[in-house]
Amino acid sequence: MTTSAPELVRVLGALADDTRWQILDRLGTSAASASALAQELPVTRQAIARHLTQLQDVGLVTPVRAGREIRWTATADRLVEVGDQLRAVADGWTRRLQTVKRLAEAADSDPDPDRSG
Amino acid sequence: MTTSAPELVRVLGALADDTRWQILDRLGTSAASASALAQELPVTRQAIARHLTQLQDVGLVTPVRAGREIRWTATADRLVEVGDQLRAVADGWTRRLQTVKRLAEAADSDPDPDRSG
DNA sequence: GGTATGTGCAACGCCACGATTGCAGACGAT
DNA sequence: ATCGTCTGCAATCGTGGCGTTGCACATACC
């Protein structure tokens, strides 16, 4: 496993914000500093800095010092992990729900098969 | 495409809550009504009802009337869609960032190749 | 018809989140 | 050494989300 269940909720929380997606999309194109992002997006540099630390906490962005400034990059691998994890959960649902459905259908045509044994 | 960008943020927002995940995990096992969920989870039925409508708005649960009660089921297909969409975004990042990296390396060994034309 | 169970809507309080402003420290350039 | 720029921390404000309580309506069962 790559992420615990409560961690997954934190990552999803980080992804559940429009401004952070703007930042991520921008950093998915090329690296940029917080000040540079503040000039491109309609929010303050401090707000962007907070978002960046939050994104870094869940591993969605990576900082790289370049002189006196810090260039940030979107971490694609982390996003892939989240996507795979969601699909894994979905697979678990389909299996269990199909099992329940089969049991219901079996009980419909043959109610209480345990008695026969 | 299955989901627009702002819709994706809404779905992720619905997934960014611990109580809603408890509901989803429970409904991923078998269908249940809001009242039944209220007896299993440490929250009120009204709170669960609000969560269910929110999850329904983004297509993560499906209601089915069974007599006087409404049984809800987790929609696995929707979660798969979200996972695939996240992976698609991640793929876009990796391609663009690798392109930028190549350009940087090319400029390192051959600075300003445009002049040669 | 009466009772019990399940659902629906509205109002309220509480807390976290997003964004802003202000100030201070650190590093590079001149 | 000085100036300009980038970063960092703290305080504040407004808004939205989560949960609760209370009441009203609909439906199945006796």
From TrEMBL, chains A, B:
GO molecular function: DNA-binding transcription factor activity
UniProt xrefs under SMART domains: HTH_ARSR
InterPro entries in UniProt: ArsR-like_HTH, HTH_ArsR_DNA-bd_dom, WH-like_DNA-bd_sf, WH_DNA-bd_sf
Domain HTH arsR-type: 1-94
A Pfam family matched in the record: HTH_20
NCBIfam families recorded: HTH_metalloreg
Name of the protein in question: Helix-turn-helix transcriptional regulator
Organism expressing this protein natively: Nakamurella leprariae
